[in-house]
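By convention, each integer encodes one residue's backbone shape. The lines below illustrate.
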Amino acid sequence: MLSFNTTIRKIHLWLGLTCGLIASFSGLTGSLYVWQPEITAALNPELLQVENIENIKEGTILKSAVSLIETRKDRIDKIFLPYREQQTIAIQFKNGKTNYYHPVTSESLGEKSVSISFFESLLNLHRTLGIPLIGKYIIGTSAIIFFLILITSGVYIWWKAYANNLRKGIKVKWKAKKRKFNFDLHKALGIYFFIPLLIIAFTGSYFTFNSTYKSVLKVFNSQHTNLIKQQKNENFSSLNETLLNSNKGYALRAIYFPKDKTDKYRLRYIKNRFIKAGYRKTKEVEITKKGDITTLSDFRFDSNSNRIAAQFYPIHIGEIAGVFGRILVFISGVVPLVLFITGFRMYRLKKKKGLKRKALS
């Protein structure tokens, strides 16, 4: 019968060789995506960048959006106002094409480029492995296994070995033989990055199981103002009037147009248009074609569970801690691949050594 410690080691080994491979792919694609805003902006200045964007008033951007909607309304599926690396207005049409427009002049700047599409595909691979329907569940489940079992079992194994000599547990002998070097690098990287990896995996699985996470987070709720009841009776004569009406404290980020006659407009607002450290504060509004407006969420009045859930994305990608956080996530994203390679090499070398012993006996 296997001892508890041996069982933990076996679990860690086999989960590392299976779940660890998916975590390596997810980590590597996520690491590349961390710098997506800067890379796409540098590759597409004619589509995404505008001079002195910080001096352009909100009212000017909204008027340009209204002007574009008035001339193209029947063909629009979604419209995205300046946000993150995109300083222009983007319109996704019902035929699938996306065009970019100047936020002041409404001048057409061109269609979506190959590099922009590349990062969209990269994000899809990161979240779903490119597998329809079940891909996101594979990623989400592997993330849960990664932070609940794989990381914790690795920390347990490390603690049992080095509780009395912590310094030895984080030391790497760079000139050691192959097996020793692999072992040292594996144990040191695992313990150095176990907290960032734990956080990244925990927040990453939220995007698959968000409803479950929100249900659990309700334990943090208290009595809040019922914003939906406050706003439901407000009426506006048209969508354009709603857009031009100042939304105190927020900037309009996106408009999702109705899919059919019974569908509604969905407006998404953001506190800061461009990347900044700190909490992510959003607001979401639904509008009927008659002009009835319902506020679905607003960070200022939301329940604690919704406020916490809104931070999973900036935490996952490191933006909540600014540039330092993004650098940490970038490096951490590569670590699972290094752990997988070193762990696999350790396994192969151990197996090869075992076969030699059998041959000699």
Observations:
- The CA atoms of residues 39 and 115 lie 9 Å apart.
